[in-house]
Known about the structure:
This protein has four helices and seven strands. By secondary structure, it is of the alpha+beta class. Helix 3 packs across helix 4. The protein is globular.
Amino acid sequence: MATYQRPDALATRLINPLIAVLTKLGLSVRGSHVLAVRGRKTGQIQEVPVNPVEVDGVRYLVAPRGDTHWARNLRIAGVAELRVGQRREQIHATELENDAKPPVLRAYLRRWKRETGKFFGVDDTASDEALRRIAPDHPVFRIA
C-alpha cells in the first residue's frame, strides 16, 4: 500500500489554500482543479486542489503524495466533482493497477514536475522500470 507524504506547513497553510481559492474563483493555475469528494469517515464533502493530466485523450488524477486522504476518499466513493470557478463536472473514478501507471506517471511528471516532482524520486525521463518501481506509492485514477 502506498504511503502518505504529509504536506509541510507552507503547503498546508499557504500554497494549497491559495491554489484552491484561485481555482474556486475560476483562475485555474496551469490546469489545476478543486476535487470535491465525500469523506469516507465523516460523510462531509472534502475539497482539495488537484492536477489532472491527459494521456491519449483519457484524463487521470495522480496522488503525488501517496495514499492521501483525497485518494482514499475517491477510492471508496468512486465519484466526485471537479471544479473550476462555477464550472462543475461530475466524474467517475477507477483506480489503475500498478502495471498500467508508468505512461500516466511519466505524463504527470512531464506536466507537473515543478510543482510535485520532489514526491516521486524520479523525473519524466525515468525508465519504465523505475516508474513501475514507484507506481505502488502513487495512486492513479482514470476519470470519466
